[in-house]
């Protein structure tokens, strides 16, 4: 029995030789309202909890930046106070005791200040651009992780479904063999061990199918979680097998560019912020300069009912400067701390470069190994199919024992399952290699 047309198309669509593409028409298996990989990833980028939280964190960060810069705006304050003098102050003057003040007094004060120079505000202004960049990089990092994890989950669901189809084909074939073996036994051509073996094999395949069927449910649930997809809504997937050859291959000669890795970009931005912090501590002896304007309304009366009948205003404007002269060694210690923080981050950057290189080498080795295994299993699949066809023909003619047919059937089924496992592995390791190279496309 030859592979059906569907499986042949799938093999042709997946077979890929590096540097060459087989020309063929794209073929997809789709159902109503089914989603492609691009649609699944786009949905996740808009709805997954990780992306929502990252965008909210970005908004929080932008508000914090605005709050830190608000000190450059004029600061207005109003104060109100009232006092009842239980015993007013007295002072002897010219031999007489003079009582000062009124029983009741109150004041309303308005104060406006405008910062002219403030080292803290100056640092906040300089750092605002780097802080915004860091927030954007954090969102980018989340987008990259979302694309990779959702794509892997998508492939896992799709290829597990293919395993289920293979097991369905095997069950159909094995049921026919079981019925043939039973008929031969009933007419006395063979003993009952043939159909008993067929019964055992059929039961095992059905058990495998049940296991794979249940794993599909778990894989879809995990994909829904990554996507932020409603749990009560069905999720149907489709894939264009004509594009699989494009997605399997990757340029293994590409040299890693560390600057493309978002992790290093984040560390470089953090270093820019630390440099600004060091400069701030180096110039912390500079004065804080501000202008002010005050307007006060004073009220006095010995009768509470008449307290606010008349007011006595006064006002003033001026400029003030606060100069830190001596603060122990606090400024010196803060400067040393800032410099040491820079040194520590430099060490972290170098360690990150080494870690990225290790990640790249590991991903490249895994991809090459998985790709070779996939090609090998693909070739083994053709051989296993031919072996099964020959042994099946020989068994029908009475040349081979039924046990030989069972072995060939088992080998074929195992090779088919291994093929899809290898295909998932090479697609997954290809994503890891792209991430290591910094080539994940997040602009979908």
UniProtKB/TrEMBL annotation:
Sorted UniProt keywords: Cell outer membrane, Membrane, Signal, Transmembrane, Transmembrane beta strand, Transport
Primary location group: membrane
Any one GO CC term of the record: cell outer membrane
Pfam families: OEP
Domain of life: Bacteria
GO molecular function, one term: efflux transmembrane transporter activity
Statement: the UniProt record of this protein carries the keyword Transport: yes
Keyword Transmembrane: yes
InterPro entries: OMP_efflux, TolC-like
Residues spanning the signal sequence: 1-23
Localization per record: Cell outer membrane
Family membership: Belongs to the outer membrane factor (OMF) (TC 1.B.17) family.
Designated name of the protein: Outer membrane protein TolC
Organism for this UniProt entry: Pontibacter ramchanderi
């Amino acid at each position: 029995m030859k592979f059906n047309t569907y499986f042949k198309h799938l093999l042709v669509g997946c077979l890929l030789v590096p540097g060459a593409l087989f020309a063929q028409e794209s073929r997809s298996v789709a159902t109503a309202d089914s989603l492609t990989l691009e649609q699944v990833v786009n949905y996740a980028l808009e709805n997954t909890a990780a992306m929502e939280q990252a965008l909210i964190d970005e908004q929080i960060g932008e508000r914090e930046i605005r709050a830190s810069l608000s000190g450059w705006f004029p600061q207005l304050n109003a104060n109100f106070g009232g006092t009842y003098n239980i015993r007013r102050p007295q002072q002897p003057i010219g031999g007489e005791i003079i009582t000062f003040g009124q029983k009741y007094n109150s004041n309303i004060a308005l104060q406006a200040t405008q910062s002219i120079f403030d080292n803290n505000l100056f640092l906040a202004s300089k750092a605002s651009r780097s802080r915004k960049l860091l927030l954007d990089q954090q969102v980018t990092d989340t987008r990259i992780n979302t694309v990779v994890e959702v794509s892997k989950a998508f492939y896992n669901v799709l290829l597990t479904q293919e395993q289920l189809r293979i097991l369905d084909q095997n069950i159909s074939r094995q049921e026919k063999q079981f019925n043939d073996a039973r008929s031969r036994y009933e007419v006395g051509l063979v003993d009952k061990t043939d159909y008993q073996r067929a019964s055992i094999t059929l039961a095992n395949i059905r058990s495998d199918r049940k296991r794979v069927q249940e794993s599909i449910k778990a894989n879809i649930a995990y994909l829904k979680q990554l996507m932020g997809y409603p749990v009560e809504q069905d999720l149907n997937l489709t894939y264009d097998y004509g594009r699989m050859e494009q997605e399997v291959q990757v340029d293994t000669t590409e040299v890693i560019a560390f600057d493309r890795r978002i992790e290093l970009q984040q560390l470089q931005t953090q270093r820019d912020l630390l440099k600004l912090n060091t400069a701030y501590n180096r110039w912390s002896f500079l004065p804080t300069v501000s202008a002010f304007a005050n307007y006060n309304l004073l009220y006095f009366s010995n009768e509470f009912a008449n307290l606010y009948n008349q007011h006595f205003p006064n006002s003033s404007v001026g400029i003030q400067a606060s100069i830190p002269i001596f603060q122990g060694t606090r400024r010196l210690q803060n400067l040393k701390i800032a410099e040491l923080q820079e040194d520590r981050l430099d060490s972290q950057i170098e360690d990150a470069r080494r870690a990225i290189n290790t990640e790249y080498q590991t991903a490249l080795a895994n991809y090459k190994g998985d790709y070779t295994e996939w090609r090998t299993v693909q070739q083994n699949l053709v051989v296993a199919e031919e072996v099964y066809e020959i042994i099946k023909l020989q068994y029908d003619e009475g040349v081979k024992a039924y046990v030989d047919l069972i072995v060939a059937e088992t080998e074929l089924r195992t090779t088919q399952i291994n093929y899809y496992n290898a295909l998932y592995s090479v697609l997954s390791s290809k994503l890891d290699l792209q991430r290591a190279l910094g080539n994940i496309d997040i602009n979908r």
